[in-house]
Amino acid sequence: xxxxxxxILSKTKSIPKPSPQQAFEGLKxxxxxxxxxxxxxxxxxxxxxNITAMKEFEIEKIKAQKEVLKDYFEKTFSERKENFNKLFxxxxxxxxxxxxxxxxxxxxxxxxxxxDSPLKQIEKLRSDxxxxxxxxxxx
Length: 139
Known about the structure:
Layout: H1 2-12, H2 20-96, H3 100-115, H4 122-130
Helix pairs in contact: 2-3
């Protein structure tokens, strides 16, 4: 290793010594590179901080949307369950009393509620999620 280093150093003797002006220019170039490196490092650090902040914001936004959807499904399906229970009670009363009009009305209502999917309203919720002007979503 020492011999290799000595070999390299012996070759540098043949390189002419720089003038003070050249040495100063070389030092100045080195300082400029260090300064540029520091600037780029700071910019990249700032970008990473911004990315982290955006990631945390988006995660919180997703969590809030999840809660809205969860609440929507709980309320919607709870209301539907109540409506179906009431309509089936009415259907039972119609059957017990042999009231064809009541049977027909309750069956028609059950079918209409079943046709109206609560998932249709999800598109409205998704649209509201994306709309920056929507500050509050009521369910």
